[in-house]
Write a sequence for this structure.
């Protein structure tokens, strides 16, 4: 009986792998990957193993995330910067009511001889501030899906993008290390 | 037992059919009325067909994937002409 109750309560999120926070972000299309990092990382893990997903889902459930308004401010900045800013440009937003802020810096755009499969990708860093804490996340935003040989996991399969949104495929930088 | 099932059923239905609350956060309203939001929605759906028959999204950074198309790339052009 206990299992049945737990199953019903969790079924809506288990079936989709999405947290309430992420569903809200999807509703308003405020999907910048750095500010939805824990939810997206848990969802990304569903594409790898169920165990990793359960661990990350639990992890995000017990940590505070940014409010939806902050997610929208960060997404607004990200979209404009990815499509219009030059390498080295920095943009920022501030929410004085919530004492939160964020910055984005476009580090590099890959093209020409040095692209090596990353042609058109933009490497950027997001810096998020909440009260006294700071979180940095680096992503590759690519105009199309990266293929075989560019970004393989330990078994040789391509690592899926963390998020596909607004014409970009977002890849977590940690898979490139 | 039946009561418990009925209660759980009501909770489950209630969660899924709950009416949306009005948007109170100004940041969300600002975002939903912005050019960036409309552009993001457009770029999420936009697809273009190439002469070789392949289909890709409309992201102009796709031009940087091929050396012969690099000179057609113009940073920010698609965003600026978008209304």
């Amino acid at each position: 009986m206990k299992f049945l109750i737990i199953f019903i309560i969790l079924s809506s999120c288990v079936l989709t792998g999405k947290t309430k926070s992420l569903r809200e972000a999807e509703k308003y299309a405020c999907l910048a990957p750095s500010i939805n990092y824990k939810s997206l990382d848990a969802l990304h893990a569903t594409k790898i193993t169920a165990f990793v997903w359960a661990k990350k889902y639990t992890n995000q459930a017990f940590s505070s995330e940014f409010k939806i308004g902050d997610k929208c401010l960060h997404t607004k900045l990200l979209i404009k910067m990815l499509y219009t800013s030059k390498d080295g440009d920095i943009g920022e937003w501030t929410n004085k009511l919530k004492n939160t802020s964020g910055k984005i810096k476009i580090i590099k755009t890959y093209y020409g001889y040095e692209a090596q499969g990353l042609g058109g990708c933009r490497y950027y860093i997001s810096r998020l501030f909440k009260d006294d804490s700071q979180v940095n996340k680096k992503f590759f935003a690519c105009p199309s899906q990266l293929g075989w040989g560019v970004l393989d996991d330990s078994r040789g399969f391509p690592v899926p993008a963390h998020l596909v949104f607004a014409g970009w495929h977002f890849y977590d930088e940690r898979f490139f290390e | 037992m039946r009561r418990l099932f009925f209660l759980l059923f009501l909770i489950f239905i209630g969660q899924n059919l709950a009416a949306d609350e009005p948007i109170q956060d100004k940041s969300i309203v600002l975002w939903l009325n912005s050019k960036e939001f409309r552009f993001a929605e457009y770029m999420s759906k936009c697809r273009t067909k190439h002469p070789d028959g392949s289909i890709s999204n409309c992201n102009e950074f796709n031009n940087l994937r091929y050396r012969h198309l690099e000179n057609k790339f113009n940073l920010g052009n698609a965003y600026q002409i978008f209304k």
In short: The mean pLDDT of chain A is 81.
